[in-house]
Design a protein that fits this description.
This protein is of the alpha+beta class. Helices cover 43% and strands 11% of the residues. It comes from Hucho hucho.
Length: 1306
């Protein structure tokens, strides 16, 4: 027992934790793989067949040589390590992901290498490196069992004696070995005709595996291949194999940070190195290969999808490729870490995890020849599908690009070309080409020596992008070459022509082809340098983008315990301020990225570093930022989107080169152990049974283990002290886990327990997670919107809500897609939501058709709409909104249509109602979804719809603002004041509607018809309506109450109040009025739009009061001078606030100038105060009359010379006022006197002339004649105060809408 403790005590510092052997258990014999049966059960369940019949009995259709049989862990040493408990099921499943594989002497039996990782529930990782080879079967029972199975197969399938049909199991979990050559099955049928025990030799796969705490891939590969070489060699190894296994398990330590270590394999020394504290963490998987397989452009896109936490599925025949790409892409995320499901090799039995409605990064093995289109994936709306073998990726729609993408690709391409690798992808890595090589357009290398077929076969084996899967003829040539004397000459020739020779180790001798050890070392050094330089390029992007992130971290809690307890309620990062500090081109990406779980965890780690040791990646990243600040003393406010190249590529490569060239530590040599004589006798080609007693116990006398034991005791003491100082450790660990897993809906899948009950439990976790995510997202969307309205009321600060709002809505669309994808019976199309909507539409339209055929009259309803002069009610239905989306030619895909439909429903405040309607057809939901699906969990579904209902409390314009180029039908209704007889006019009326995105142009209205519809390009939010007529006929006077305009797609209705006459000789003589509109409150009752005066939507009590001041002026109501001054102050204040908001967040300036609470109305009241407007037996006088008389006086005074004595600037001001008034009067528009005054104020505000014109009007003698003594305009102090208030508008660039200044020539 003491020995085991000694071994496990040092485990955290050991190079390897376990040595494992997996293979066939001769005692239990051939057992069908239960996992394959479970997979068939799941597949049948997915396709709606009876799963129980699918998984019963043997699969006799398939040749027994192609079937999967159960593998077992035959031995593992030591028995257990305290720090890393041995999970037998998981290790067995990942060492042999498709179970045992059988071969005969006619088949290719090349050894294979792959790696895997196991992520434990706390997020820590253990790496496994596996060397699989074929060993002859000596058990007569197994040979005869195989013979019997083969005869049964022949009896069942006489026609296909040797060819085997592909089962569904094969399609997703075929053996890697079958993929070795397309000709393997034909070779089997032709040469050996299946299996005959009397004439064929049977071989079975066996796996040797090292399990390590760190990913030392090259070192493990080298050690395992040397052990295999020792088994296959003619002579026994120098020492028993136990000595080498014992050495690597107990006597080889982990290299200390920043140091290199040499230890000894069976034949050659092995070197590994570990980065120092300030360097990027260890990553031994060859990144160059990842870039070669995918190409730079594809890899950057995949990197971007990973950062945005999409679902990522890697697809390849080769397990090692899956692992290399998965590890490569997660390595590039530094300083961030992937926080969701991570299974680089997904065993067939875990296929149901593709149904997970959460972000994941998984690798799926493909069968050669399997068509991608046949692969049915549960959800694809947010999926990035990476077909590694075909060097292509399928991207999700509509996601922001990584900042400075072209420059990043350029820099990465330069690094790759420096190492002789094509940035295009699809070709294997080559050395720097010499003059005798040419690179074809596809990036594959071809030499200028045609000739020998054998040379061609060798070169294709090395340079083939298909992982060495040669065609039949080429493979036959290759087999002839094996053991051939000319092989070495060919290899030398290949080397001279610049072709890489490493792949040949699988063909001929292990290392000799490289010309000794130095070539292997050179290759490893080259890979290590390339790895670190590529990673540095990505790391420097983050160092630049997040250089000042620390300034925006909100440290709000006094201690760790209170922070962990309130983690969910706290804002940890000031997102709005951070985004406002970034360059414009970065915003689309950054606004999405700072919403991800990996960014949230990064910030959490930063906050927790106040109270505990910094997380290693964070420590390195912060160190780099500090270093960059020392060298680069730029002002943090100066943000530039210029690309900054990485400056430390050379140093990073040199650091690795120095470590690998100058070895810091050498481990103890393997030595003879105290073993029983005669056991484990060497027999060529067979891996011996190792003596477990010497391998389960570590050495008790070496000084390294004593040193680590002392260090461990010191650690333990320190831990006990800190426990007294801080939280109870268990409690703290619980909080930490909860904090870290916040927002993760699922922990890593546990590989060992896969019963249907566990699958059901997993799905229940998904349902709970989706509901929690929905609650968080809707709450966040509400807080953002409420925050914006608080800004409008003067609380809080402005923030970039437009951008954030778009990000939040995009993430809501993503969540809805994931909910609709969960538990689907059969996948149809890329968008699960749109597919459901189409099913619903088909059913509803069928019902409509049936109702239309039945003789039911719709009379009363039609009469109701005709009897209403107001806006007829808009039909609300799911189908109607779908038809609007289907008619939009701009949207080409189902995912795009689903997103547009969500945006439209959200803008109409109908999202919850529509989805409730959709799910009310329970028969349809049952047909489309399995029992465990989220949409069939009644209580959760109700809560989900309730959370969505809360979004109706705020206004979204997420459809109108995104689809700016679509054609939209508008309906305009003119509502006259009916009390007076001439509600109708004999003249020809017209209307022109303007919005933030343009105007409709002049639309003629049919005489005596008060309603019209027209189609035009999206106008955005509507701002003004120009209403007029041509003054023809006898009844050319028209009293209009208001104009209502509705967007027929979104249902937004705008009200444009008028309340004035249009006609010559009545009111102010206007034939045209510019009406300013605001969004009308939607009301369940249709009557809201008929002439009744429903108050407009009020934003705050202050504004309600101001409405009464300006709009009541003409109705006998006289506001006091204090109220008038307050109204002017409020109007100017609103304009100032408007310009202080980010540009994308500003509303309509026209409303602030000319609306009911605008500047024009307030100034009109100022000019009306004390104005002698009514004359006995005379026409009413307007303020514009006073302006015209004042201008006439100035012009006559100027002609008489009086003005020449005035100061020059005053003279110029006088000229400008006269010029503007004359331009307004000579305009072809008949806008009436009040309209002309409005125009003068707007132009004066725009051109910063108002405060110069006011003194002129006050000095003019006309003032005394037209104003009473008490008028505000005659009070010098008040006028000066008004000038001071208006002065503040000079800081802002006021632009006027075209509808206001049309026809004015200045």
């Amino acid at each position: 027992m003491s020995g085991t403790n000694a071994a496990s005590g040092a485990a955290p510092c050991r190079f390897a934790h376990y040595f494992v052997i997996c293979g066939i258990d001769t005692e239990t014999g051939l057992e069908p793989d239960e996992l394959a049966a479970l997979y068939q059960w799941l597949e049948a369940d997915r396709q709606g067949r009876d799963p129980d019949t699918a998984a019963t009995g043997e699969n006799f259709e398939q040749s027994p040589l192609k079937r999967t049989f159960k593998s077992k862990v035959l031995a593992h040493y030591p028995e257990n390590v305290e720090w890393n408990p041995f999970d037998q099921d998981a290790v067995n499943m990942l060492c042999m992901p498709k179970g045992l594989s059988f071969r005969t002497q006619a088949d290719s039996r090349e050894p294979q290498f792959h790696s895997f990782l196991i992520t434990r529930e706390d997020g820590s990782r253990t790496y496994g490196f596996v060397h699989t080879f074929y060993e002859e079967v000596t058990s007569p029972q197994i040979c005869s069992a195989m013979q019997t199975l083969y005869q049964m197969h022949q009896a069942e399938n006489p026609s296909s004696a040797t060819s085997s049909s592909s089962s569904s199991m094969d399609s997703l979990a075929s053996s890697l070995d079958e993929a070795d050559s397309p000709s393997s099955s034909s070779c089997r049928s032709a040469a050996c005709g299946g299996y005959d025990a009397s004439r064929d030799t049977l071989y079975v796969s066996k796996a040797l595996c090292l399990i390590t705490p760190m990913p030392f891939m090259h070192a493990c590969h080298s050690f395992l291949s040397q052990v295999h070489r020792a088994v296959m060699a003619d002579l026994p190894p120098p020492l028993p194999l136990e000595s080498y296994v014992h050495n690597v398990l107990y006597e080889v330590p982990l290299p200390p940070p920043g140091r290199s270590l040499k230890f000894h394999g069976v034949y050659e020394p092995i070197v590994c190195q570990r980065p120092g504290p300030g360097e990027l963490p260890l990553a031994d998987f060859p990144l160059g290969q990842t870039f070669t397989l995918l190409g730079v452009e594809n890899l950057v896109q995949l990197f971007n999808c990973t950062l945005l936490e999409m679902q990522i599925l890697l697809y390849s025949q080769d397990y090692q490729r899956l692992m290399t790409v998965a590890e490569g892409i997660t390595t590039l995320l530094f300083p961030f870490q992937w926080q969701h499901v991570y299974v680089p090799i997904l065993p067939a039995s875990l296929l149901h995890f593709l149904d997970a409605p959460v972000p994941y990064l998984m690798g799926l093995q493909s069968k050669e020849g399997t068509d991608r289109s046949k692969l049915e994936l549960p959800q694809e709306a947010n999926l990035c599908f990476v077909d590694i073998d075909n060097h292509c990726i399928e991207l999700p729609e509509d996601f922001p690009q990584f900042p400075n993408k072209p420059e990043l690709i350029q820099e990465l391409s330069e690094v790759l070309l420096h190492y002789g690798i094509s940035p295009v992808g699809g070709a294997p890595p080559t050395s720097v080409p010499t003059s005798t090589t040419t690179t074809t357009p596809h990036g594959s290398v071809s030499t200028r020596h045609p000739g020998l077929k054998s040379q061609q076969a060798l070169r294709e084996l090395e340079d083939d992008g298909r992982n060495g899967n040669l065609g039949g003829e080429q493979l036959a040539v290759l087999e002839l070459l094996q053991g051939n004397a000319t092989l070495e000459r060919l290899q030398a020739l290949a080397k001279r022509t610049g072709v890489r020779v490493e792949a040949l180790r699988g063909v001929g001798g292990e290392g000799e082809a490289q010309g000794g050890r130095t070539a292997v070392e050179e290759e490893e050094l080259r890979n290590a340098k390339l790895n670190v330089q590529l990673r540095e390029v990505f790391a420097s992007r983050f160092t630049t983008m997040f250089a000042d992130y620390e300034a925006f971290v909100i440290q709000s809690a006094p201690d760790l315990e209170s922070w962990l307890t309130n983690r969910e309620q706290m804002h940890n990062f000031d997102k709005a301020s951070f985004l406002s500090d970034q360059p414009e081109p970065y915003l689309p990406f950054l606004s999405h990225f700072i919403e991800t779980q990996m960014f949230a965890t990064f910030i959490d780690n930063k906050i927790m570093s106040q109270w505990e040791e910094k997380e290693p990646l964070l420590r390195v990243f912060d160190g780099r930022i500090d270093k960059a600040r020392l060298y680069n003393v730029r002002a943090p406010s100066l943000r530039s989107s210029n690309y900054q190249r990485c400056t430390i590529l050379k140093e990073s490569a040199q650091a690795i080169e120095q470590r690998l060239m100058k070895i810091d530590h050498t481990a103890i040599h393997p030595h003879l152990l105290d073993m029983k004589i005669g056991q484990g006798k060497y027999e060529q080609g067979f891996f011996p049974k190792l003596q477990s007693d010497v391998l389960s116990v570590g050495p008790t006398n070496n000084k390294w283990s004593n040193r680590t034991a002392t260090a461990q005791r010191r650690k333990d003491r320190h831990r006990q002290q800190t426990e007294h100082l801080t939280l109870d450790n268990d409690l703290k660990e619980k909080y930490m886990q909860e904090a870290r897993s916040l927002g993760k809906n699922l922990r890593q899948p546990k590989l060992s327990d896969l019963s249907p009950a566990v699958i059901a439990q997993t799905n229940w976790k998904f349902v709970e997670g989706l509901l929690k995510e929905c609650r968080m997202k809707t709450k966040r969307m509400l807080v953002e919107k409420m925050g914006r309205e608080a800004v409008e009321l003067g609380h809080g600060e402005a923030n970039i809500t437009g951008l954030e709002e778009n990000t939040l809505i995009a993430s809501l669309c993503d969540l809805l897609e994931r909910i609709w994808s969960h538990g689907l019976q059969v996948k149809q199309g890329k968008s699960a939501l749109w597919s459901h909507l189409l099913h619903y539409q088909a059913r509803e339209e069928k019902l409509e058709q049936q109702q239309a055929e039945s003789p039911v009259s719709n009379g009363p309803e039609r009469r109701k709409s005709e009897s209403s002069i107001g806006m007829p009610s808009l039909r609300v239905s799911v189908i109607q909104d779908m038809r609007h989306i289907q008619s939009m030619g701009e949207i080409k895909t189902d995912v795009g249509r689903a997103r547009a439909w969500i945006r439209l429903s959200l803008e109409k405040k109908l999202l919850s109602q529509h989805l409730k309607q959709l799910l009310s057809r329970q028969a349809l939901t049952k047909k489309l979804y399995k029992r465990y699906a989220f949409l069939r969990c009644e209580e959760e579904k109700e809560q989900f719809l309730f959370h969505l209902l809360s979004l109706n409390t705020v206004d979204y314009f997420c459809f109108t603002s995104v689809f700016t180029t679509i054609m939209i039908p508008y309906r305009a209704v003119i509502i006259p004041i009916k009390k007076l007889s001439n509600a109708m006019t004999t003249s020809n009326p017209w209307v022109c509607v303007s919005g933030e995105l343009g105007d409709s142009g002049v639309r003629q209205i049919t005489k005596n018809v008060l309603e019209m519809t027209f189609d035009c390009q999206n106008l955005g939010k509507l701002t003004t309506v120009q209403l007029g007529h041509d003054n023809s006929g006898l009844l050319a006077k028209w009293l209009v109450d208001c104009v209502m305009v509705r967007n027929e797609i979104t249902g937004h209705t705008y009200k444009f109040p008028c309340g004035r006459w249009l006609g010559k000789g009545v009111d102010d003589g206007s034939l045209e009025r510019v009406l300013i509109g605001e969004l009308a409150l939607p009301n369940a009752d249709e009557d809201c739009v008929r002439g009744c005066r429903t108050p407009d939507m009020q934003h705050s009590p202050g504004q309600t009061r101001r409405v009464s001041i300006t709009s009541m002026g003409g109705r006998g109501y006289k506001p006091t001078s204090a109220q008038i001054q307050e109204a002017i102050g409020e109007a100017v204040n609103s304009i100032c606030k408007h310009f202080h908001k980010p540009e994308k967040e500003r509303g309509s300036l026209t409303i602030l100038l000319c609306g009911e609470v605008g500047l024009v109305g307030a100034l009109e009241q100022f000019f009306h105060n004390g104005f002698k407007s009514a004359r006995l037996f005379q026409k009413t006088v307007f303020v514009w009359d006073f302006v015209e008389k004042a201008v006439a006086y100035m012009e006559s005074a100027d002609q008489m010379g009086d003005m020449q004595e005035t100061a020059e600037p005053l003279g110029l001001t006088c000229v400008s006022l006269c010029h503007y008034v004359s331009a307004i009067n000579s305009s072809p528009r008949n806008i009436g006197k009040d309209g002309k005054f409005q125009l003068l104020v707007c132009l004066g505000a725009r051109d910063r002339l108002l405060i110069q014109w006011l003194p002129l009007l006050v000095e003019c003698p006309v003032l005394q004649r037209m104003y009473e003594e008490s008028a505000l305009l005659r009070d010098r102090t008040t006028v000066n105060a008004l000038i001071d208030v208006l002065q503040t508008l000079h800081d802002f660039p006021i632009t006027l809408e075209a509808s206001l200044v049309k026809g004015i020539d200045l």
